[in-house]
Amino acid sequence: MSTAHEMNALWACVASGFYVGSRHGSFLGYVDRQAEGIWRAFDAASRIVGDYADHHAAMAAVSASAPSGEGER
Q1: Rg of the Cα trace of the chain?
Q2: In the 8-state DSSP scheme, what is residue 2?
Q3: Could you tell me if 21 and 63 are in contact, meaning their C-beta atoms sit under 8 angstroms apart?
Q4: First-to-final CA distance of the chain
Q5: Residue 8: its pLDDT value, please?
Q6: Sheet of strand 48-52, all strands in order from the earlier edge strand to the far edge
Q7: Which of 18, 62, 64, 67 is within CB 3.0–4.6 Å of 29 for a Cys-Cys bond?
Q8: What does the alpha-carbon distance between residue 14 and residue 71 come to, in Å, rounded to a whole number?
Q9: Are 59 and 9 in contact (CB under 8 A)?
Q10: Which segments in the chain show pLDDT lower than 50?
């Protein structure tokens, strides 16, 4: 089940296997498909959040890793 925090994130595919996320205009991080097929999630400072089997799980991890209130106005 998605939380409101995750649902407020907007994701854009900017290249094959590469997604960037934002919430209320603030950069959350990105998700990048690795050569071995895993999806690596990165936070807004390009720190690795973790590796995931699919991009949906990676996106959820990035959304959840953003500080509470990130991008809130």
Answers
A1: 11
A2: -
A3: yes
A4: 25
A5: 86
A6: 10-15, 18-23, 26-33, 39-43, 48-52
A7: 62
A8: 21
A9: yes
A10: 1-2, 4-5, 70-73
CA dihedral over 26, 17, 31, 9, signed as positive or negative: positive
Alpha-carbon distances, residue 73 vs 8, 24, 25, 26 (angstroms): 13, 8, 10, 10
User: What per-residue confidence (pLDDT) applies to 36?
Assistant: 94
Cα–Cα dist 69/31, whole Å: 21
pTM of full prediction above 0.85: no
Contacts of 1 (CB under 8 A, 6+ apart): none
Strand partners, 47: none
Total residue length of the chain: 73
d(CA 37, CA 10): 23
